[in-house]
Amino acid sequence: MKISEYVEILAREGGLLADAAERAGDTAPVPSCPEWRVDDLLRHTGSVHRWATLVVGEGRVEAPAFPDASALPAAEPAAWFREGHAALVRTLNEAPAELACWTFLPTAPPSPLAFWARRQAHETTVHRLDAQLAAGVAPSSVDAEFAEDGVDELLIGFHARPRSRVRTERPRVVRIRAADTGAVWTVHLSPEPARTVRGDTGDPAHCEITGDAAWLYAALWNRAPLTGPGITGDESLARLWREKAGI
Q1: Which of 244, 231, 142 has the alpha carbon at shortest distance from 193?
Q2: CB distance 102 to 61 below 8 Å
C-alpha cells in the first residue's frame, strides 16, 4: 500500500474513533479492553499519536519517552484526542520521503515514513473497533487489502519480537488463510518467538484458521471472537492465541 493511502485511512479512522467515543461517553467500559473505559482509550491512543508525531516531526533516531499519563488533561479527552490526531495526520503528510528516524518492528517497511504511516493507521483502526464496541454499535468494515496488511504486520512484525507470549512447549504450525484476498501465512510456534512465513510452506498444519481478511484482522487483534467453522484442527492453538496474543 502507498504511504498516502495509510495516511488517508488514519485520518478517516481517527474521526470514526472520536465519534464513537463521544457517543459512548467517557466512562463507558471498553469490552475488548476490560481494564479500560473510553476515557482510557482516548488517552492511550492520543498519547500514541503525539509520541509518533514527535518521532516523525523531529526525526528522532532514538525512542522518546512515552507521555506520562498523570500529565494528560483531565477534561474533554475527545477534543484532546482530535487535536493530537490532526497533528499526526498533518505531520505525516508534510514529512519528507527520505525521512530518517527510529522504528521498532523487526520487519519494518522499506522507509521510516512508510513504517509510521502504516503503524499509526493500524493502531488507530484497531482502537476505532474498541470505541465502536464501547458505543454498542456494529464496528465499521475494514477494507480487505488493508486488513490483510494489518494481519501481516501483526504476525511478521509484532509476534516476531522477544516479548511475544504466543509460544508452545513443542513445535506447532498454524496456517492462516484470507479467503477473499488469497493471502496465506504459516506460523511456526515453539518455545521461542513465533516465526511466520508468507505463503503455504507445505508443512503440515496442526491448526488452520480461515476467513475473510476483515474477520482475521479483528479476530487476530483480539477484537472479535477467534472461534467458528473457519478454525480446524487443534483448537487449543486458537485458545492459546486468544489468551496470549494481546499487544
Answers
A1: 244
A2: yes
